[in-house]
Amino acid sequence: MGVTNDDQGSVGPTLFLESTPLDADEAFCTDVFDDASGEYRVVQFTAAQSFESLREALDVQLERIRDPSEAAVIITTPQADEEATTSEVGEGTPLYGFQVDPHDLTGISVAFSRLIEKWDETEGTVRICLRDIESLLPYHDDDLVYRFLNTVLATLQGAGADVHAHLHPTATDEQTLHMLKSLFTQVVEPGESDATAATATTEPKREDTEDPSEATTATTAAMSDAEIDAFLDSTGYGVLAFGGDGPYVVPMSYGYDAARRELYLHMSSFEGSEKQTRLEESTAVSLVVTRYERPDRWRSVVVDGQLERLSSEEVRDRNVHAVFADSKLASVDVFSPDPSEISFEWYALTPTDMTGRQGAGSL
Question: What is the CATH number of domain 14-188?
Fold first, then answer.
């Protein structure tokens, strides 16, 4: 995509854990404006304010910082109307507003998708703040919010956006908090700066605890082939990473045939599809499948291999539909064009390597 991220130090999304309420007078998180140079665009996801109050507050904010090229707000409210709003702030900066019912996760995704498509050929950075992600929890199951955020983060990062989020830990229970934290490359605790915060690794780190016996159990172990087979068979969704220039990852449902040790994916294709472009360059991919419950109870499997498009005869001979029937929904939204413009193809992921790790509590 045309959207680029000039912040070469950014390696993934950051989560800021907040101990006090965010300043309601700051229409946008100040992080989206920090060290901005050249063209840049900002997006704020929030449930806190009306479009008009956000516009007025941002107008005041821009008196002391350099105006972005464009700005947008996505506001969740049960009183949402379906019309997008356009206004101006600062020195003629366009401000786009979207109001979406918090029950409508697809509507939230569509709002992000419209902005991505609008800025597809633009230069400069796109900086996105997910300010009130806990506001979705009263409306949806925790696991659904997790999968939704997984989809949104992967899509926005894949488009080159610089994304961070804010979360009040007291808004959820400990298990859900750990699950949401696992989506982010970096987690900044209250009182820390993003310069001093620890960066997440591919394995969940052991949390500090006052209970020494709990700390000693938070070790890791390799998964056997049988454990990997059972885990892949029971999970049904993960994140698919493509090769090429720059990272590109998408949430992906799959079916797993343990007897053949082969995975089946049903992938969309349309004009300008990034997935299709990457596959034309290389069929090498990696599928990452993780489940996280607590610091000592988690599993993570990485499947490296080649994607092969299946003919209708191969789909029938391998009983792909029956295998895929047990898959789970990887995402709850569609970042794509009109459905009439999309075709779907079956692919087999033939592993060249499969590795798995698990916490001691998963043994």
Answer: 3.40.50.11570
